[in-house]
Design a protein that fits this description.
Elements: E1 2-10, H1 12-18, E2 23-31, E3 35-42, E4 49-58, E5 63-66, H2 70-80
Antiparallel strand pairs: 1-2, 3-4, 4-5
Length: about 80
């Protein structure tokens, strides 16, 4: 199963030049059956759970904060791993 979502990448050049972080939204697709685990996303600034995002971890120890609600991703994760 393939899932389409969005992630945010840090513009390293902008950060190097200005000292400020700039996030650029980009589209992403991935195979749900390659996800090892899923967790809720905790916003660093507020220490609150963001219901519109979650963190996914792949087998090769990569992780991404994705713009997919945790509950939705859990359903996809369970379905792909039956």
């Amino acid at each position: 199963m393939i899932h389409r979502t969005q992630i945010e990448l840090i513009d390293n050049k902008h950060e190097e030049l200005t000292g400020k972080e700039l996030l650029i939204p980009v589209d992403m697709v991935f195979r749900v059956d390659l996800v090892m685990s899923v967790r809720e996303h905790l916003e660093e600034e507020t220490n609150e759970i963001n219901p519109d995002k979650c963190v996914i971890y792949f087998f090769e120890e990569k992780s991404f904060i994705i713009h997919t609600p945790y509950r939705e991703m859990v359903k996809l994760f369970i379905e792909a791993n039956r």
